[in-house]
Specification:
Blueprint (H helix, E strand, L loop, with lengths): L6 E15 L4 E9 L5 E7 L5 E5 L2 H10 L4 E4 L2 E6 L2 E6 L3 E7 L4 H8 L2 H4 L5 H12 L4 E3 L5 E19 L2 E2 L3 E2 L17 E12 L22
Parallel strand pairs: 4-5
Antiparallel strand pairs: 1-2, 1-12, 1-13, 2-3, 3-4, 6-7, 7-8, 8-10, 9-10, 10-11, 10-13
């Protein structure tokens, strides 16, 4: 994929979890300990009727995500993630409460962990990973995002989600199910089977003359982490 002559290359290192529920609502958690904007988390929600909602912790992160993906509604609320062992607890203000547990690392996760992090996080590596990702998981690892942006996903680990309890705006969303139909925020989706994926996401953002994206002061370096 060709990069724009004037583009800022931004890297986000963390985790993406895809959850389906019996109500038809699907949720995608992005948890980014390292990013150009500092550590943050966000949740993308697609209801059964197709309404797409973004929950992001700051106006700056909300604007960036909304310019990269497609939503019908954006809300800025505190998004907090707590991880204890295999259990993740996620809250987004008074709107969302989600808890899920993950399985032990399976064969695919073990294979992904054998790839050196410095290689797995490089955009060119998606030339190798995109075909098997489409075949095995039904997902894409490279493509065009909103606003003329390019995006690459470099997976470094994968664990299945075993169970989840999710409440949105006071309504229990039902038992854990497949992420089906696929979410429609951008060119990519998450695996049909609920999963937690360690990933480095790289985004090329076209820059107008005299303008550049400035990372948040004190942001952690955008280098791949080891995962757990």
């Amino acid at each position: 994929m060709r990069r724009s002559a004037r583009a800022a290359r931004l890297r986000f290192d963390g985790w993406i979890a895809g959850i389906g529920t019996a109500s038809g609502t699907r949720l995608v958690l992005g948890h980014w300990p390292r990013s150009p904007f500092g550590p943050f988390s966000d949740v993308m929600v697609e209801r059964g009727d197709g309404h797409r909602l973004l929950l992001a912790p700051t106006r700056r992160t909300a604007d960036f995500i909304a310019a990269t993906y497609a939503f019908d509604e954006v809300r800025v609320v505190p998004v907090r993630v707590r991880v204890r062992g295999d259990t993740w607890a996620v809250t987004a203000g008074p709107l969302l409460d989600m808890r899920f547990t993950t399985a032990r690392r399976g064969l695919l996760g073990l294979v992904l962990r054998t790839v050196p992090g410095v290689l797995a996080s490089r955009p060119f590596w998606t030339v190798v990973t995109d075909p098997p990702a489409r075949l095995l998981l039904g997902v894409r690892t490279r493509g065009t995002a909103g606003g003329g942006r390019y995006e690459w996903y470099g997976a470094r680990d994968l664990r299945r989600v075993l169970s989840a309890t999710t409440t949105l705006e006071g309504r229990y969303l039902g038992a854990l199910t497949a992420v089906e139909p696929a979410v429609r925020f951008g060119f990519g989706s998450t695996p049909r089977r609920p999963s937690l994926v360690a990933v480095t996401t790289t985004v090329d953002v076209p820059q107008a003359p005299g303008h550049r994206v400035v990372p948040t002061p004190g942001a952690l370096p955008c280098t791949p982490g080891s995962g757990s």
